[in-house]
């Protein structure tokens, strides 16, 4: 019986330690900062997309569903859940990407498209120039 009591005590201590050392949950932010690349012109654009809104990048419609960022005491990471649809006049819309993208590992869950690349840069609290194109090219 004593061995069982020690084992239970050990498990409780280990469990409490695991809970105390568990990473903090990411915080939700209202705006995703994305980098868009037009592979044809080699121009990049920085897009600030409010969560729940859609912006146009070339023939793509980009919708950000969620943007999470780890707290400052954790290793840096921003991630966004994106839905990307390609639109061409006279053709049905085609889903190009739907899933999570991570700022620290853009190749982990990359969008496969012959003309455009998108990647997550950060999650922020405001978008003074939502959908702005800071490089002067790319978004049409």
Overall body shape: globular
Q: Write down the Rg.
A: 21 Å
Report on the biggest sheet.
5 strands, antiparallel
- What percent of the residues sit in helical stretches (DSSP H or I)? 10-25%
Question: What is the mean pLDDT?
Answer: 80
Structural class comes to: mainly beta
- Compressed to H and E, one letter per element, the order equals HEEEEEEEE
Instruction: Domain count, please report it.
Output: 1
By oligomeric state, this entry counts as single chain
- Low-confidence sequence ranges: 4-23, 130-140
Number of strands: 8
- Give the helix tally: 1
The amount of beta strand, in percent, is 35-45%
Query: What is the CA-CA span between the terminal residues?
Result: 74 Å
Written description of the protein model:
The chain is mainly beta and 140 residues long. The chain has one domain. It has 1 helix and 8 strands; from the N terminus they run αββββββββ. The strands form 2 sheets. Strands 1, 4, 5, 6 and 7 form a 5-stranded antiparallel sheet that branches.
């Amino acid at each position: 019986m004593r061995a069982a009591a020690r084992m239970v005590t050990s498990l409780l201590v280990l469990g409490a330690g695991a809970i105390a050392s568990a990473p903090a949950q990411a915080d939700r932010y209202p705006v995703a900062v994305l980098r868009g690349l037009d592979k044809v012109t080699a121009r990049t654009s920085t897009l600030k997309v409010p969560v729940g809104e859609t912006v146009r990048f070339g023939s793509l419609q980009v919708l950000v569903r969620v943007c999470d960022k780890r707290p400052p005491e954790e290793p840096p990471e921003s991630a966004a859940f994106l839905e990307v649809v390609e639109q061409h006049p006279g053709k049905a819309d085609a889903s190009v990407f739907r899933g999570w993208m991570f700022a620290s590992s853009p190749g982990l869950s990359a969008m496969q498209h012959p003309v455009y690349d998108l990647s997550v840069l950060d999650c922020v609290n405001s978008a003074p120039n939502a959908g702005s194109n800071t490089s002067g090219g790319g978004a049409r």
